[in-house]
Amino acid sequence: MSIIKNKKILFALTFILVFVSFFYIKFPHERLKRRIVFEIERNTRFDAQIDKVKIIPLLKIEIKGLKLTKNDQEVIVPKAVFKPSILSLLSNDIDVGFDLKVFSGKAFGDLTVSKDSNQLKTILINIEKVDVDKIRTIYSKSAKENVELSGLLNGSLNLRADNTGGFDFYIEDLDVLKLSVNNFTLPEFIDLRSNLKGQIYRDKTIINELKLDNSEISLKLKGSTPPLWRLSKGSIDLLYRLEVKGKKYAYLKSILSKDKRGNVEGKIVGSIKNPQLKKANDRRAKPRRQQGGGPQYRKTFSPKKQHAI
């Protein structure tokens, strides 16, 4: 009896092995690769290239050498693994878990795709130890001329089908090694603590809080920027408040105007590639009030002498 039972188990295992091997050998990998490229290009503004697609038993799809490009924007994903939920295949929506190696770190999470429309409904992304200096290639490889950063990004991002969502990030050991604004290069800022929170809407991103600080200096920003997919073209509108706590950066107070408590306030406008700094509360003249009641700002850090408004 045990011999018959063992033969049945052996037969079942052999059948599964043969089936999986046949499935793996006969599966149209090139067709799947073309379909993945098509879906990426259809749902994003990037052109896509893939070196290799591999089907792993139990519904795992492994992608190697994924490259996304658009003009001078570039994103390289050395490896990505997607795993659809087997139970979700029986429902109206398909849940897919993913794990990506990107920007020297990793991104993982879940996405939901509608079976009826074949459209992405929701996506949740968790980020661990991503190199912040490499993220700039998403919106422009040429941005290195204006800014150079060092640090590791962590946090989460969620998006819905209507291009709305939210984010919450922090950066470990952030160093701002190079930052040029209005042809003026700011000093290096080392060992900054940083956090970033906000909401994403169709046409803009709202920055609720962007804070950078250490024992010497504290910078807070809030306002609006273009959405991630239009960062290279849209305009930014950010209010900033700079507090110099030590002697190292005290000279910045003489370059920028300050309020009664010695803090520096102003506005950043322009674009990510070419930010323009404006300031309020100039020492030489009181700022005029606009119709909305807010102070009027003027450019600073210009190679030409600026005059009070």
SSE blueprint and pairings:
Elements: H1 2-26, H2 29-43, E1 47-49, E2 52-56, E3 60-70, E4 73-84, E5 93-102, E6 105-114, E7 120-131, H3 132-135, E8 147-160, E9 165-181, E10 184-186, E11 189-200, E12 205-213, E13 217-225, E14 236-244, H4 252-255, E15 264-270, E16 275-279, E17 298-299
Antiparallel strand pairs: 1-3, 2-3, 3-4, 4-5, 5-6, 6-7, 7-8, 8-9, 9-10, 9-11, 11-12, 12-13, 13-14, 14-15, 15-16, 16-17
Features:
single chain; 309 residues; alpha+beta; 17-stranded antiparallel β-sheet
Tell me about this structure.
The structure is a single chain. By secondary structure, this protein is an alpha+beta fold. The protein has a domain at 29-112. It is 16% helix and 49% strand. It is built from four helices and 17 strands. The chain has helices at residues 2-26, 29-43, 132-135, 252-255; strands spanning 47-49, 52-56, 60-70, 73-84, 93-102, 105-114, 120-131, 147-160, 165-181, 184-186, 189-200, 205-213, 217-225, 236-244, 264-270, 275-279, 298-299. The protein has a 17-stranded antiparallel β-sheet that branches. Strand 8 (147-160) and strand 9 form a beta hairpin.
Largest sheet geometry:
17 strands, antiparallel
| SSE ordering | HHEEEEEEEHEEEEEEEHEEE
* Shape type: elongated
Measured on Cα atoms, how large is the radius of gyration?
A: 26 Å
Number of helices: 4
Low-confidence stretches: 1-5, 17-26, 282-293, 297-309
Distance between the termini: 99 Å
Estimate the mean pLDDT confidence. Answer: 76
Percentage of β-strand residues: over 45%
The overall strand count is 17
Helix content bin = 10-25%
